[in-house]
Write a structure and sequence with these properties.
Number of helices of chain A: 0
Oligomer: heterodimer
Shape of chain B: globular
Radius of gyration of chain B: 13 Å
Shape of chain A: globular
Distance between the termini of chain B: 39 Å
Strand order of the largest sheet of chain B: 1-9-8-3-4
Structural class of chain B: mainly beta
Order of helices and strands of chain B: EEEEEEEEE
Largest sheet of chain A: 7 strands, mixed
Strand content of chain A: over 45%
Largest interface: A-B, 26 and 21 residues
Helix content of chain A: under 10%
Structural class of chain A: mainly beta
Helix content of chain B: under 10%
């Protein structure tokens, strides 16, 4: 069966520090991968998506970047965190490319920038 | 992209059916309706999706009107664990299957 892993679950970082969040998917190959962010009390905002290794598309201009060094690995990074980067970060993947294309989400990383 | 409109919040008694409405009057002919839910501090969970026919799975039923301008998610026997924010989403056209999440409906199931 397919599973998605995100870590860490929670993270507290000072302003100006770097960030690296990792997401890996098991049990499938060549998935579409997504990074979302959810601010407190708000809906999810798509940040990045990737349809293959090294292929990254950004949805909104921001202080973050994403990379996909391996087929089932998706990394979210920042060189210098801002207070506004605080939020709940979720990784997701697409189960198939047939009818429906259901997205499955990881457990998320709660980031607090202080 | 089609947009959705959902009530901000709803209440339901435990054991009763929860009927969550969604309006998507601008939906295109090849766009699907998806339902996800998010329990507090967890990642969203897929529930069900459909194009034009009613759908049922082990979690819920999805009723889509004939003109496809609205739909209803039905949880037949709500439990306390069904308390969550429920999102009705219309799939954006495109190969990467972006999902646009609105504010959703906050469903509170009470004893």
């Amino acid at each position: 069966s397919q599973t998605i892993h995100q870590w860490p679950a929670t993270l507290v970082q000072p302003v100006g520090s770097p960030l690296s969040l990792e997401c890996t998917v098991e049990g499938t190959s060549n998935p579409n991968l997504y990074w979302y962010r959810q601010a407190a009390g708000r809906g999810l905002q798509l940040l990045f998506y990737s349809v293959g290794i090294g292929q990254i598309s950004s949805e909104v201009p921001q202080n973050l970047s994403a990379s996909r060094p391996q087929d089932r690995q998706f990394i979210l990074s920042s060189k210098k965190l801002l207070l506004s980067d605080s939020g709940f970060y979720l990784c997701a993947w697409t189960a198939d490319r047939g009818r429906g294309n259901i997205q499955y989400f990881g457990a998320g990383t709660r980031l607090s920038v202080l | 992209d089609a947009k959705t409109t959902q009530p901000t919040s709803m209440d339901c008694a435990e054991g009763r059916a929860a009927n969550l409405p969604c309006n998507h009057s601008t939906i295109s002919g090849n766009e699907y309706v998806y339902w996800y839910r998010q329990i507090h501090s967890q990642g969203p969970q897929y529930i069900i999706h459909g194009l034009k026919n009613n759908e049922t799975n082990e979690m819920a039923s999805l009723i889509i009107t004939e003109d496809r301008k609205s739909s209803t998610l039905i949880l037949p026997h709500a439990t306390l664990r069904d308390t969550a924010v429920y999102y009705c989403i219309v799939r954006v056209k495109g190969g990467y299957n972006k999902l646009i999440f609105g504010a959703g409906t906050r469903l509170a199931v009470h004893p």
